[in-house]
Amino acid sequence: MTRRENWKGHPGRWVTMIGFCVAMEIILARFLSFHTWNLKIGLSFIPVVVASIYGGPLAGGLTGALGDFIGAILFPVGPYFPGFTLSSFLDGACYGLFFRKDISRGTILRAVLFVQLGISLLLNTFWLSLLFHTPFAVLFGPRLFQCAAGIIIKFLILSLLLPALSKHGI
């Protein structure tokens, strides 16, 4: 039986898992992260990835989107912008798609590269340029540094965490 099969036919477990992961995402994003107006460094991706692995792309996407929306409403860091909620949904959905079959180091690297370069660097930089009326090119340099650091950090953390979770049947 696969990880996802444990959740099929059990909507109560699925909702509980998403609720727990959303709560963890909010705590990690709003209270245990470093924020500036154009950079964010933290561990809030971990519950999104966990929800993605165990509940699939929809669970990961909902965890990311709900965590962003609820966190922005209850504990605002800046102005709410729905583009970031969309990006958060896409982050979780992408992890769910990449981790459908396995969680090998190669898959982890591909998932992290896609999310960091495609969503964080390109899409979120675009959202920031719209929100703050700042040229994309001006934001790209500092965001490139954040994404490069994010690739390394996320790959290392997920490479250690995911096999350990899988080994313990979680």
Give a concise summary.
The protein is mainly alpha-helical.
Q: Between the first and last Cα atoms, what is the distance in angstroms? A: 13 Å
Biggest sheet layout:
2 strands, antiparallel
* Radius of gyration over all CA atoms, rounded: 16 Å
CATH class: Mainly Alpha
CATH architectural category: Orthogonal Bundle
Mean pLDDT: 89
Order of helices and strands: HEEHHHH
Q: Helical element count? A: 5
Shape descriptor: globular
Number of distinct beta strands: 2
Q: Main sheet: which strands, in order across?
A: 1-2
The name CATH uses for the topology is Arp2/3 complex 21 kDa subunit ARPC3
Secondary-structure class: mainly alpha
Q: Low-confidence parts lasting 5 or more residues at pLDDT below 50?
A: none
Per-chain topology:
Layout lengths: L10 H21 L2 E2 L4 E2 L3 H30 L7 H17 L6 H28 L3 H32 L3
Antiparallel strand pairs: 1-2
List the main descriptive attributes of the protein structure presented here.
mainly alpha, 5 helices, 2% strand, 170 residues, Arp2/3 complex 21 kDa subunit ARPC3, two-stranded antiparallel sheet
